[in-house]
Specification:
It contains no helices and eleven strands. It is mainly β and 126 residues long. Strands 2, 4, 5, 6, 9, 10 and 11 form a seven-stranded mixed sheet that branches. β7 and β8 form a beta hairpin.
Length: 126
């Protein structure tokens, strides 16, 4: 079991920045690749970014590439999502998740993740 909890969400103006954090409990944190997903009303849960166990590799959805950066600090059992140049369409509940899959092509599907946080709301509006 790897309990996860997100923080850092809130209201930000278009063009602004936010950094989300995902804190994990358990000493096996570094065994899992981590991902960020988001969901808006009327839409399916959408992959945002993923990062390998060590943090050496990362992948991004095309919609956020160049604007968002995923990182992790295994010593702190924490994963981050730095979000820059935010747009209204980035408004969503953001979830972090842990997966035992190690290859990047497995990270895009929500069904491949074992553990999920409760989510944090990000609203981009002027």
């Amino acid at each position: 079991q790897v309990p996860l909890v997100e923080s850092g969400g809130g209201l930000v103006q278009p063009g602004g920045s936010l950094t989300l954090s995902c804190a994990a409990s358990g000493r096996s944190f570094s065994i899992y690749a981590m991902g960020w997903f988001r969901q808006t009303p009327g839409k399916d849960r959408e992959f945002v970014a993923g990062i390998s166990r060590s943090g050496s590799s990362s992948v991004y959805a095309d919609s956020v590439k160049g604007r968002f950066t995923i990182s992790r600090d295994n010593a702190k059992n924490t994963v981050y999502l730095q979000m820059n140049s935010l747009k209204p369409e980035d408004t969503a509940i953001y979830y972090c998740a842990a997966t035992s899959y190690t290859n990047t092509w497995n990270w895009y599907a929500a069904g491949n993740y074992d553990y999920w946080g409760p989510g944090t709301q990000v609203t981009v509006s002027s």
